[in-house]
Amino acid sequence: MKRIRIITKQKQEYIDITEIIRDYAKEEFKDSSGIVTLFVPHTTSGVFINEGYDNDVVKDINKVLNRIVEKIPFDHIEGNSDAHSKSVLTGNSIQVIVENGELMLGRWQSIFFAEFDGPRERELWIKAIKD
Amino acid sequence: MKRIRIITKQKQEYIDITEIIRDYAKEEFKDSSGIVTLFVPHTTSGVFINEGYDNDVVKDINKVLNRIVEKIPFDHIEGNSDAHSKSVLTGNSIQVIVENGELMLGRWQSIFFAEFDGPRERELWIKAIKD
Amino acid sequence: MKRIRIITKQKQEYIDITEIIRDYAKEEFKDSSGIVTLFVPHTTSGVFINEGYDNDVVKDINKVLNRIVEKIPFDHIEGNSDAHSKSVLTGNSIQVIVENGELMLGRWQSIFFAEFDGPRERELWIKAIKD
Q1: Under a CB-based contact definition with an 8 Å cutoff, are residues B97 and C39 in contact?
Q2: B37 vs A19, B70, B103, B128, C86, CA distance in Å?
Q3: Do C75 and B60 touch (CB under 8 A)?
Q4: How do strand B93-99 and strand B34-39 relate by DSSP bridges?
Q5: Are B47 and A47 in contact (CB under 8 A)?
């Protein structure tokens, strides 16, 4: 298992980690194939795949997530239940196929680490399962 | 990795792909066991598992997803941020257990490929990891 | 594949199953490493990871899910499309990394089985994939 360190600077932030994962896959798999699992060990963060070409897409996804938690009378005393809920809705683990060392993503896909209650020092855990 | 071609005909469409995945598992695993990963390489599509017996269930899930993105002032110039957001909320990869070549699903479960910005020509990528 | 039996007693219930999964990982992996896949074979249940320390977090997540499905005119005759939708939004499978028999979770993370249309007798399916 490999740990990647991620520093977020804003309250809500989406960081494109595609190249980090692509490099990991090349180094770890070389010419072999399998699956990479990405796991977020935090409860106010998430990881998901979507369009990374136009930055407005991620901003729009953020608007949707903000709308979902708007004006809900939360009980949790730390005041960040909006962030916990967004973490559940986006999910905290994904799998990506690797073929001959190449991370298999669609043309418009990027992998995003999302922090919903930053700024924070975070980790992303990566695990390779080979054929 | 196997690529399956999926043609959608409507703007929003949910296609039951259970039998395709079941056949793939039988052929690929034979008498062996493991995990099948399904991966959608598009950013306005998703894949999920839910009831496939009464078609109204999927129509109702579609109503929920439409409500979530209703009247949000999106910035993305292509005008399909509703579809990108739904893709993130449903997710674009799932895992299903295979035992002795049999795809292990609950009695009422079907696997759906969802397109939120069709009609489109799409692919679903499948990867088998054996014990 | 191992089947775990879960009995829910309320309409909506979140059961912390972390220790069950931790024990399973220790027994199944011993000193080896890999990935554990958890799969819910039901269509009104889900499985997710979030904070398990303050019980208010899960209650707040429940509020968010209830708000999402509020006042939607559902068609499905059984009247539980709210629960089907919540199952899709939380997801019905997750992966957790195992290192030397230890289930790798972040400090505040717990694994929850969620039933959205109980009370019910349920199962959770677990599958180990070793390195």
Answers
A1: yes
A2: 22, 32, 12, 6, 22
A3: yes
A4: antiparallel
A5: no
Tokens for C10, please give them.
């309320």
A23 in Cβ contact with A121 (< 8 Å): no
Q: How far is C55 from chain B, CA to nearest CA, in Å?
A: 24
The Cα A51–Cα A95 span in angstroms is 17
The model's pLDDT over A29-87, given as tens digits with 9 standing for 90+, comes to: 999 999 999 999 999 999 999 999 999 999 999 999 999 999 999 998 899 999 999 99
Which of C85, C127, C130 is the closest to B64 by Cβ?
A: C85
- B40 alpha carbon, distance to own chain's centre: 7
The full DSSP string for chain B is: -EEEEEE--SSSEEEE-HHHHHHHHHHHHTT--EEEEEE---SSEEEEEEE-SSHHHHHHHHHHHHHHTTT-----TTS-HHHHHHHHHH-SEEEEEEETTEE---TTEEEEEEESS-S-EEEEEEEEEE-
Put simply, the answer to whether C64 touches A78 (Cβ < 8 Å) is no
Q: Which of B60, B63, B129 to mutate to test the interface with C (most CBs of C within 10 A)?
A: B60
Contact B56 C75 (CB under 8 A): yes
Return the residue of B nearest to C74 by Cα: B60
Residue A18 backbone dihedrals phi, psi, to 5 degrees? -55, -50
* Distance separating alpha carbons of residues A106 and A111, to the nearest angstrom: 11
B63 CA: distance to closest CA in chain C (Å): 7
In the DSSP assignment, the letter for residue C6 is E
Distance from CA of B38 to the nearest CA of A (A): 9
Contact C49 A76 (CB under 8 A): no
Preceding amide of B41 cis, omega within 30 = no
> Cβ contact (<8 Å) for B127 and A97?
yes
Output the CA torsion sign for B81, B87, B88, B90: positive
Tell me the count of A-C CB pairs closer than 8 A.
92
Q: What is the interface pTM, i.e. ipTM, of the complex? A: 0.96
Over residues B16-30, the pLDDT tens digits come to 999 999 999 999 999
**Could you give phi then psi for residue A17, rounded to 5 degrees?**
-110, 15
> What are chain B's domains?
2-70+79-125 (2.60.120.460)
